Amino acid sequence: MVWTSGWKLASAASENGCLGLIGAGSMKPDLLAEHIQKLRNYFRDNGINKPFGVNLPLIRGDINELVKTILKEEVRIVFSSAGNPKAFTNIFRENNIKWVHVVASVKHALKAQDAGCDAVVAEGFEAGGHNGIDEITTLCLVPQVSEALEIPLIAAGGIATGAQIAACMTLGAEGVQIGTRFAATIEASSSDAFKQKIVDANDTDTFLIMKKLNPVRLLKNKFALEVLEAESRGASADELKELLGRKREMKGIFEGDLVEGELEMGQSSGLVNEILPVKKVIKNLLNEYDSAIKNL
């Protein structure tokens, strides 16, 4: 949810019954602190007492500074991803932080459990953005992780409807994590052009590329097709890095460059038909869930 889940989206999600997460993947430490403070100020000014969390990609070069920011701002819930969780076990445990790690395989789920995580998110490769290299689908990943773990399991990857939430619950999940559906909300900090691209996307409009570097699911556009062509002719990892350049995600998601930007979204984009307020999205999800359970 880089360039998408700032304090406005996270606060709206928490205010309306979900656990909102501020996405730190596109933030420097000072900006992360600003978003945490703005969320808390909004809650205080409106008499809201709800939990929220921060998502930390552990692969970030400035991860230690981001963690220091989390501690300074007394954040109590952290979802970590893209890295080895064991390096932060002592820090999170000593500071009484509820800690969830995102994984894409049973092996990594067990490693997260051994590291002391309170729960894991098992994310299938339908998900938008960075993905697991083994390309395991949510439908196959969730029940296998559920069988292997003793700690709670949250399902993710391609989920945008209440019926899908019900399906994940039957597979052994205690909850779900949703990205793309909330990226196309009024409160999301992504550009209106990017949000509209999610709405316009159909079932075949995303694909998984950059497997030599770090697999990522994104919308097919000029930039993405250039990367695919380079991969097809056997481009090296260094060549791909040069093609990627810098700030492609910001250019596409935040600035709305639909040609040269990296437009990360999941396969669930084909299920998103309009840009809505967060409150309406959550209401729809709950109604769809109830209807799905009733119709079984």
Notes on the protein architecture:
Strands 1-2-3-4-5-7-8 form a seven-stranded parallel β-sheet. The chain has a three-stranded antiparallel β-sheet with strand order 6-10-9, with helices on one face. It is 44% helix and 15% strand. Helix 1 (7-15) packs parallel to helix 2 (29-45), helix 2 (29-45) runs parallel beside helix 3 and helix 7 (162-170) packs across helix 13 (278-295). It is an alpha/beta fold.
Question: What is CATH's topology name of the largest domain?
Answer: TIM Barrel
In N-to-C order, the SSE pattern is HEHEHEHEHEEHEHEHHEEHHHH
The largest pleated sheet is described as:
7 strands, parallel
Overall domain count: 2
Order of neighbouring strands in the sheet with most strands? 1-2-3-4-5-7-8
- Report the CATH superfamily of the largest domain: Aldolase class I
Helix content: 40-55%
CATH architecture of the largest domain, by name, is Alpha-Beta Barrel
Q: How many β-strand stretches?
A: 10
Alpha-carbon distance between the termini?
33 Å
Put simply, the count of helices is 13
Low-confidence stretches: none
Average pLDDT over all residues: 94
Overall shape: it is globular
**What Rg is obtained from the alpha carbons, in whole angstroms?**
18 Å
Keywords:
44% helix, globular, 2 domains, 296 residues, 15% strand, alpha/beta
